[in-house]
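Quick start: read one record
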Amino acid sequence: MDKELGDVGTHFMFENDQVKVWNLVLEPGQASQWHRHHNHYTFIVIEPSTLKTEFEDGTDGESESHAGQVVMGRKDSVHRVTNVGSSTYRNVIIEIKS
């Protein structure tokens, strides 16, 4: 992949030998950095909106979220998300170390 990869969230919150925790906040029209999850992860939606997810293979998809939604993610996933909704989006990402 020729894209420069960045952080998985907008704010690093906590890390120990078991987990790494990030907060992701995206205003309408704002995108995360392209990033790779080096660990399996889950995220919990705090403030919902509509996100477009783009993957390194060129595929993408749009999804609506709801507050309290819990989503499991794949290790080594390379992607970025863009808030295509009309409200602020926020989640908490928990990367699970092996």
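The chain is about 0% helix and 55% strand.
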